[in-house]
Design a protein that fits this description.
This protein is an alpha+beta fold and about 210 residues long. About 20% of the residues lie in helices and about 40% in strands. The strands form 2 sheets. The protein has a 6-stranded mixed beta sheet, with no helix packed on it. A 5-stranded antiparallel beta sheet has the order 1-4-9-6-7.
Length: about 210
C-alpha cells in the first residue's frame, strides 16, 4: 500500500511539473517560416487571377485552377521554431483532414515533409518528398511542410452539387506542435492561397 501511494505521488508530481513547465514557457512557439513556393499542380490548368486581385487593398492573389477529375495540387510552406528550446513539430493534424468529406470538389489528403528550407525551396522535386512524421526542431530551425490536395473523381456529382463560376479554396493550414506535454496549434497563412473552380458547362456536357 505504501509503495502504491509513493508511486502515485511521484506520478502526480511528474504530471504537475510537466504542466507547469509547459505553461511557464510562453515564448515557446512554432510560427511562419521564411520560405514558400508556388503551388504544384498535376493535371490542373492554371487560370488568370480574378479581380480585384493585385489592387493595393486586396489580399494576396490566389492561384486559381480549372477543375479536372482526380488530380493533385500541393502547397508548400516553411515553419520555424521561434523559441529558445527544441520543440516537436507534429505536422498537420489528422482531425483537420478528417473533417472534409470525400465528395468535396477538392480536399486535403496528406501532409508531406520537404526537408530543410534549402532543399525544400530550391531543389524540391529533385528529391521525392516523404510522408510527414513528427520531428524535433532546434531553436530557429525551419522545415518545409507540404499539403497534398486531390480533386474529386466523381464528375457527375461535382456538376450537380457545384454551381458554375464558384470555387473552393484554402488560405490557411494548421500545424500542431508540442513541448513537454501539451499540444498547441498554429494557423499558417499560405503565401499563395489556392482556389479550384467548379466544373464548367462544357465539363458537364459530356
Amino acid at each position: 500500500m505504501r509503495i502504491f501511494a509513493v508511486g502515485l505521488v511521484l506520478a502526480v508530481a511528474g504530471a504537475l511539473a510537466a504542466a507547469v513547465a509547459d505553461v511557464t514557457v510562453p515564448f515557446a512557439t512554432i510560427g511562419h517560416g521564411s520560405y514558400s513556393r508556388a503551388p504544384v499542380a498535376e493535371g490542373l490548368e492554371a487560370l488568370p487571377p480574378q479581380p480585384p486581385c493585385g489592387s493595393p487593398f486586396a489580399g494576396p492573389c490566389a492561384a486559381r485552377f480549372a477543375y479536372a477529375p482526380n488530380q493533385k495540387l500541393t502547397v508548400w510552406f516553411s515553419v520555424r521554431n521561434e523559441s529558445r528550446v527544441p520543440l516537436t513539430l507534429d505536422g498537420v493534424p489528422r482531425r483537420w483532414f478528417e473533417q472534409f468529406p470525400s465528395e468535396m470538389l477538392m480536399r486535403p489528403v496528406a501532409a508531406l515533409d520537404g526537408g530543410g528550407p534549402v532543399r525544400g525551396s530550391l531543389s524540391l522535386g529533385a528529391t521525392d518528398p516523404t510522408p510527414f512524421r513528427p520531428l524535433v526542431l532546434a531553436p530557429l530551425e525551419e522545415r518545409m511542410v507540404g499539403v497534398e490536395f486531390r480533386t474529386t473523381a466523381d464528375v457527375a456529382y461535382a456538376c450537380t452539387h457545384w454551381k458554375v463560376g464558384i470555387g473552393i479554396g484554402w488560405g490557411q493550414v494548421p500545424v500542431v506542435w508540442h513541448w513537454v506535454a501539451t499540444e498547441h496549434e498554429t494557423q499558417i497563412d499560405l503565401a499563395k492561397p489556392i482556389t479550384l473552380m467548379a466544373p464548367t458547362e462544357s465539363d458537364c456536357a459530356g
